Amino acid sequence: MAPKSDALTTKVNSGSPYQLDQPQTLKASTALLKHIKSESDRKEAASVTKSLVGSNHGPYEYDASDAEPIWLILTTKKHIVDKARLKPGKIPLPHPLDTSPTTTICLITCDPQRQVKDTIAHPSFPTDLSSRITKVIGVSKLKARYQPYESKRQLLNEHDVFLADARVITMLPKILGKIFYKSNKKPVPVSLEPYRQANGEGKRIMPKPATEKFKTIAPPQQVAKEIEKALSCALVHLSPSNNVAVRVGLSSFTAQQVANNVGAVVIGLVEKFIPKGWRNVRGVHIKGPNTMALPIWLADELWLEKEDVLDDGDEAMKAAAGPGGKKRKGRELDKVDDEDADRGAKSQRSEEVDGKRMKKRKVEDADMSKEIKERREKLRDQKRADREEINGKTTAVAVHKVSIT
After folding, report:
1. Nearest by Cα to 137 from 157, 165, 161, 158
2. 44 falls in which pLDDT band (50, 70, 90)?
3. Strand (E) positions, 144-271?
4. b/e map of 112-128 (b: 16 or more CB within 10 Å)?
5. Where are the alpha helices (DSSP H) in 232-329?
6. Quick one: which of 134, 227, 230, 139 has its CA closest to 176?
7. For position 371, what pLDDT does the model report?
8. Helices (H), 238-320
9. pLDDT per residue as tens digits for the range 296-312
10. Is the CB of residue 265 less than 8 Å from the CB of residue 71?
11. pLDDT > 90 fraction of the chain, expressed in percent and rounded
């Protein structure tokens, strides 16, 4: 019987040096869902009003409307990108998150919006999808109608999912503001342009150029396909940091569904978004909104390249290296030593000057204190003399009155 191993990193002989351990992913998914279920049951038992969460469902399952999101946290060794990207990336999921027939969708399109409305109302467009699209609005009307903060918040609360034409996705942060981009309802890009058609030679040709006023819209079947594709993908929002969080499941999913989504998202991130692939991955975790992060993969090496690691004697060599990383010559080192000596002498002279200034200031403070003390004593003597003179005059007047009487 093979010995049992708790290692989170698996090395293979061919292909990538690392790969995700599926049993470990399933084990972590099961433990996370069990913890979320137990916490929900505990809160339900403590509350007076009964919650619908976990009432008539199987183990680790919830009602879709009350399900909590499950996040995948991938940490890298170096930053993924240099600046934040306004257009999120998409990774297909084997088990989509937004499949409820009651989900309301708001579609933001380029101008004019009438072409998209006619496309969705076309008989060839799927009715189950068109019934979920409750609002279609162009960029110009969105900018004109939803300028106040209250109107933007109302629009955010009215719809569950926001889709946007890929041609206008970079314009929306300025129009919608931080209330949208700090929530979990960031607009998802959708390609509404028609596909390129192939000519007789097998080469794809561009469609006729669209004017600024009337932009071309794809046929109904293509639009429906692109919308369903966007709804079945996980969104990847990249920022200049060494970690990325992706929503990969719900608490109403089974452990196997969560594990399948985690595997698909990890592969998509490593192959499409992470520079240098698995070599740059430091760790992979999953977590709920209010839970600890459970590790499912950890790297053995915390550095990306061998050049990033220094031996014991390399610190002195690195200190002696110039800005370009080249080793300095003997004359340059002597010059540096002379400059260091000059700086040391200058700092010593400055310390001596500062010491003299402080000594002089202390002497001046002592003289001033002595002068103040002398003034106070002189003032006391003067007051004492004045009181004695007043008391003497008062006594003389009293004696004079007694002698008269």
Report:
1. 165
2. confident
3. 161-165, 188-190, 197-198, 204-205, 233-236, 243-250
4. ebebbbebbeeeebeee
5. 255-268, 314-319
6. 139
7. 82
8. 255-268, 314-319
9. 998 887 776 666 666 65
10. no
11. 28
| Residue 57: band (very low, low, confident or very high) from pLDDT cuts 50, 70, 90 | very low
Tokens read off for 130: 């068109």
| Amino acid residing at 403 | S
pLDDT the model gives residue 392? 76
Of 99, 336, 318, nearest in space to 228 by CA: 99
Residue carrying structure tokens 């010491």: 355
Alpha-carbon distances, residue 206 vs 119, 152, 223 (angstroms): 21, 37, 18
pLDDT in tens, 219-230: 889 999 999 999
CA angle 87, 117, 172 (to 5 degrees): 25
Q: If residue 283 lies in a helix (H) or strand (E), which one and from where to where?
A: strand 281-287
The β-bridge relationship of strands 204-205 and 69-76 is unpaired
Q: What percent of the chain has pLDDT over 70?
A: 72
Instruction: Answer whether the bond into residue 112 is a cis peptide, omega within 30°.
Output: yes
